[in-house]
């Protein structure tokens, strides 16, 4: 294979051109409403399965936009996702972003109760005095806790749910899909903190570019 010279400033653009071409070659026609999100997930992972497995609740794009422009908080389940989400875009709207996973009180409470730090982190997030967008890239127990709390009356404002792995991952995702919580979920075992951040960034860039 020949090396293709691409200017550093053009690498991302060229990558998306390749993704669009390969989608066409595979006979995959994306819903234009969601194409920027799906393509960014593919760009992040080089995995075209996201064209088939990414699930959006009704009006997900508009709901996410409304939450952001009204200054919602974002809470992630990993510091990796926290690092990957574009802070400059969030600052435009006065949105805060948090990850409680490394907090001492979270670790102590998790050990005391014999539950995951992700579960306790979600509980802490639920006490915030503003709507919360939950961005989950690692822990299915975070999604399970959110669904259990929803069943008891708490309403998550929005969930980006793409935990990766094998134990309870698929079932936890289906718990959110089979609810009326607004969401973007990736069905199956695939996902990760990088994918969670990519979805948030794709939505923020769509807002920036007037696509939603």
What would your notes on this structure say?
It is a single chain. This protein has 212 residues and is of the alpha/beta class. It has one domain: Rossmann fold, CATH 3.40.50. It is 50% helix and 11% strand. The chain has eleven helices and six strands. It starts with 10 loop residues before the first helix and ends with a helix. The mean pLDDT is 96.
How are the secondary structure elements laid out?
Elements (H helix, E strand, L loop, with lengths): L10 H15 L9 H11 L4 H4 E3 L3 H10 L3 E4 L2 H6 L2 H5 L5 E3 L4 H10 L3 H9 L6 E5 L3 H12 L6 E4 L7 H9 L5 E4 L6 H16 L4
Parallel strand pairs: 2-3, 2-4, 4-5, 5-6
Antiparallel strand pairs: 1-6
Helix pairs in contact: 1-2, 2-11, 7-8, 8-9, 9-10
């Amino acid at each position: 294979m020949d090396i293709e010279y691409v200017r550093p400033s053009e690498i991302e653009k060229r990558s998306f051109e390749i993704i669009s071409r390969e989608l066409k070659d595979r006979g995959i026609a994306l819903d234009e409403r969601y194409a920027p999100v799906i393509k960014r997930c593919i760009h992040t992972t080089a995995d075209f399965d996201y064209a088939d497995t990414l699930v959006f609740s009704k009006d997900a794009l508009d709901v996410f936009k409304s939450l952001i422009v009204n200054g919602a908080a974002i809470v992630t389940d990993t510091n990796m996702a926290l690092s990957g989400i574009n802070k400059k875009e969030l600052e435009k709207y006065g949105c805060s972003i948090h990850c409680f996973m490394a907090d001492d009180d979270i670790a102590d409470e998790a050990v005391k109760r014999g539950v995951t730090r992700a579960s306790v982190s979600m509980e802490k997030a639920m006490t915030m005095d503003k709507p919360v967008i939950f961005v989950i890239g690692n822990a299915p127990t975070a999604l399970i806790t959110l669904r259990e709390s929803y069943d008891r009356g708490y309403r998550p404002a929005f969930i980006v749910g793409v935990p990766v792995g094998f134990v309870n991952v698929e079932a936890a995702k289906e718990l959110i899909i089979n609810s009326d919580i607004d969401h973007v979920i990736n069905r199956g075992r695939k996902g990760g903190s990088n994918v969670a951040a990519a979805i948030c960034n794709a939505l923020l860039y769509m807002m920036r570019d007037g696509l939603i």
